[in-house]
Amino acid sequence: MAALCRRFTGFHFLLVLVSLSISSLVFGDWIGDDEGEQFTEELLLKPLPDRKVLAHFHFQSTAHPSPDSGHHHHLFPKAIAQLIWNRAPCDAVGHFMVQKFQIRDLELSFTQGRWNYENWGGSDPISSTNAKPPGVELWATFNVPVVEIDTTWKNLTHALSGLFCSSINFLESSTSYTTPSFVFGLNVSNIRYGALPREAVCTENLTPWLKLLPCRDKAGLATLLDRPSIYKGYYHSQKLRLTSTKLSGIILEQTLTIVLQPNIQRNSAHSLLDGAIQPSWSISSMFKRNLTGSCVLARTSRILVELEKNIVSKLEELGHGGSWSNSLLDLSPNPFRVIKEVNPFPEESNSILFEYVNSKEYEPLDVGIKWKLPFVWSSPHAPFHASRFLMGSGTERGSIAISLQSTKSDEYFRSKSNECRMQAVVFQVVPWYVKVYYHTLQIFIDQKLQNLSDVIEKIRVTPSEDKKLPGTLELVLGYPCTVQSVALTLDFDKGFLHIHEYPPDANQGFDIPSALVTFPNLHSSRIYIGDDSSVHSPLLLKFQEKNVVLSYTEVLLVPFTTPDFSMPYNVITFTCTVLALYFGSLLNVLRRRIGEEERLMRSKDANKRGLIPSIVSKITSKLRGMPGSKPLLIFAVVLSVLFHYIVN
Amino acid sequence: MAGIRGYWTLAAAAIAFRILLLFCLPKDFHLGSHPEITTPLTSLRRRTSPVACSWRKVTGSSRRPCRPTQVSPFPRVPTGERAELVRCIMAPLCYCQFSGPLVLKDLKGDLLISTADFITATLIRATGKKLMLSRYKHLQILNLSKLVETSGFVDSGDFAALMYLWNPMTIVICIGSSTSPIDNLMVVMAIYGACSRIPPLAAFGWVFAVHLSLYPVILIVPIILLLGYGLDAPPSKSFLLKNSYARKNSTLAKIQVNSGTSSQTDKAINHFSWIPVLHFALWVSVWLGYVLFLSSISLKGIGSITEMFRKTYGFILTVEDLSPNIGLLWYFFAEVFDFFRNFFLIVFHVNILFVILPLAIRLKHRPCFLAFVYIAISSMLKSYPSLADSTLYLSLVTLFSNELADMQFSFFLFCGYIAVSLFSPVMHNLWIWRGTGNANFYYATGLAYACLQTILVVESVGSMLKHDRLLRKTVEAEH
Question: What span is annotated as the signal peptide, if there is one (chain B) (predicted)?
Answer without folding.
Answer: none
